[in-house]
Write a structure and sequence with these properties.
Helices cover about 40% and strands about 15% of the residues. It has about 600 residues and is an alpha+beta fold. It has a 6-stranded mixed beta sheet. Strands 8-7-12-9 form a 4-stranded mixed beta sheet, with helices on both faces. A hairpin with a 2-residue loop joins strand 7 and strand 8 (about 130-135). It is globular, with a radius of gyration of 22 Å.
Length: about 600
């Protein structure tokens, strides 16, 4: 087997046992890797209805056939489990040396189950797995944890860890690496914490098996050179994703005051050009030459790695217009191991709920010191922070008083940083995302702004599906970063060439799209198996705010979504996907994708349409 190592490592923390298991070549060809592997593993190995924070849940770290090779931006790893935040499938990818080291240790995935009696570090060094007492580092933040482990295992070791948020089972705790690299918005850090697993350290000293080493070396070098020639490269190196602040402000898509508005009067104070004035360096994932992490000096005179999502969700969305202060909030969240997107949404929700006098807590927009303390309260589940630690859906259910109307989520996952009052296609991408309201699978808003915002037509549905197949399918299974292609127009043909050099197999782009559709339908089946007859189309209707409360400021003043038109758009999307009006895959669709066993299993939980 080339490209793939052909081996998964099965780890049982309850028994301090780790066993390497070979897997069939057909699994690799059908699911490619990364998200595909994770979805298949969780579908096969989890019983429906388990508590996501129980020992029965599986935490999966999965790579793809290009991970760790000399391919541009290939230092990526998928982390997945049943989500404690949503109750459905959850995953995320992160850039980390752990991705490369896991592959060099000989594994395409590590599957962790059980719960250690006391806190442990899992140390994987080639074919040996050790369970190390972690009592001395339990309670440390993620930066401190990694620093301590690097002292023990060396600077080349790959480390992923959790902070206090994961230890305290905050439902949107992340898995962290390298002081700012994060993965698993839907609570993967909480799953790790529930297993008493403080960190995983990977050390690998083997070569990743490649079919045509000479071709791979030449193609990789050519790819890196090609990235450097792209017209947008120099500006990307200056600002990365931060230029999106100004773009969203110009186009009324910048979340402000808990997504109540699409513009923010202090947007220029948190945008890319302001960032450049306080920037001290760039950081990136391994094997990357278009580093997107902008490191700035924050108000505490410490370094914080910022990008668009965390700046907006901890800036304009909570009414804070000071970039150095926003950077502190971001760094504190990273240290504690909190997802900055869900965190910013939870804080925005809390402030608005306070302003509407639905809770006794006194909170206000743009209060830096108070917000910093609230972040710590969430991570340590103190006072009202304990309510917010459950996520906005659960918090609204507990608070009541109509607060669900401004709880910004889809299927329990908080909306990431694009306001959709005037963006039906982007709202559709949130509605149908595999993990909840996340932008990574179909960042369609730029295309939508360019080609027309008011329509709910078929072209928009087709574009969302096209992007989901590429961004949420191909790149998440290979596993490589999407940014060279999506931000610099690095041609997709490079990846099929890389795949051939790595695996020795001619896998055309259509085969990757087929695998993407297969994986997406398997993930959807996972959700439906969990929810059974409780699953309804209404679960995928975006927040009511976008339908009920028009924008009152900016160039799109007065805009809001039309619920009837959006519902029709959603139904058409389902039809194109081969799903029924509930959003459940039809039996024939699953059969065409080679998933008849999935159809048979699903029929135990819901009635399938033909």
């Amino acid at each position: 087997m080339f490209g793939w190592t052909g081996v998964f490592l099965q780890v049982d923390l309850s028994r301090n046992k780790a066993v390497a298991e070979s897997y069939d070549t057909l699994l690799a060809l059908n699911y490619i890797g990364g998200r595909g592997f994770a979805a298949k593993i969780l579908w096969d190995k989890l019983n429906p209805g388990i508590d996501p924070l129980s020992p029965e849940n599986k935490l999966v770290f999965a790579a793809g056939p290009l991970t760790g090779l000399g391919v541009p931006n290939s230092g990526k790893l998928v982390v997945a489990a049943k989500s404690p935040l949503t109750g459905g499938y959850g995953d995320g990818n992160m850039g980390t040396f752990a991705a490369i080291q896991m592959r060099k240790a000989g594994y395409d995935a590590v599957i962790i189950e059980g719960k250690a009696e006391t806190p442990v570090v899992l140390h994987i060094k080639d074919k040996v797995a050790e369970f190390i007492d972690a009592k001395d580092i339990w309670g440390l933040n993620t930066f401190e944890t990694e620093a301590q482990l690097k002292i023990l295992y060396g600077r080349t070791a790959g480390v992923v860890s959790i902070g206090p948020a994961g230890e305290n089972l905050v439902k949107f705790a992340m898995v962290m690496s390298q002081e700012g690299r994060a993965g698993g918005r839907a609570g993967m850090g909480a799953v790790m914490g529930s297993k008493n697993l403080k960190a995983v350290v990977f050390e690998g000293y083997n070569e990743i098996p490649v079919a045509y080493p000479k071709d791979m070396k030449e193609l990789s070098a050519a790819g890196y050179r090609e990235v450097l020639t792209k017209p947008s490269y120099s500006f990307w190196k200056r600002q990365g994703t931060m230029s999106t602040v100004e773009w969203c402000q110009e186009n009324s898509a910048l979340p402000a005051f808990n997504f109540r508005e699409g513009v923010f009067e202090k947007a220029n104070k948190i945008g890319g050009f302001t960032m450049e004035k306080i920037k001290v360096s760039n950081r990136g994932c391994p094997n990357c030459n278009m580093t997107c992490g902008n490191v700035v000096k924050d108000s505490d005179r410490k370094e914080s790695e910022i990008d668009y999502e965390n700046v907006v969700m901890l800036g304009s969305n909570i009414g804070l217009g000071n970039l150095r202060q926003v950077a502190v909030l971001n760094r504190v969240a990273d240290e504690l191991g909190l997802d900055t997107i869900s965190l910013g949404s939870a804080i925005g929700f809390a402030i608005e709920t306070s302003q509407k006098k639905r809770i006794p807590e006194k909170l206000d927009w743009g209060k830096y010191k108070e917000t910093k303390e609230l972040i710590k309260d969430i991570a340590y589940r103190r006072g009202f922070g304990d309510v917010l630690a459950e996520g906005v859906k659960a918090a609204a259910a507990k608070i009541g008083h109509g607060s669900a109307d401004w709880a910004m989520h889809v299927k329990g996952l908080e909306v990431s940083a694009y306001d959709c009052h005037a963006a039906p296609a982007m709202a559709l991408s949130y509605a149908t995302s595999s993990v909840g309201a996340h932008h990574k699978e179909a960042w369609v808003i730029a295309w939508e702004v360019k080609f027309g915002r008011g329509s709910y037509d078929e072209e928009k549905i087709n574009k969302v599906i096209e992007m989901q197949r590429l961004r949420g399918g191909v790149f998440e299974s290979l596993v490589v970063c999407r940014f060279p292609n999506t931000s610099l127009d690095f041609e997709i043909e490079w990846y099929t060439k890389y795949l051939r050099a790595a695996t020795g197999r001619d896998l055309p782009f259509n085969a990757l799209i087929y695998a993407a559709d297969k994986t997406l339908n398997l993930i959807r089946a996972f959700w439906i198996r969990e929810y059974g007859n409780s699953w309804t189309r209404e679960m995928e209707i975006p927040p009511m705010r976008w339908f009920k409360e028009p924008l009152t400021e900016g160039p799109m003043k007065g805009a809001m979504l039309d619920l009837v038109k959006f519902d029709g758009m959603l139904k058409k999307y389902y039809k194109k996907r081969g799903w029924d009006e509930r959003g459940i895959p039809r039996k024939t669709t699953l059969q065409k994708l080679g998933l008849p066993d999935v159809a048979k299993e699903l029929e135990k939980h819901v009635k399938l349409s033909e």
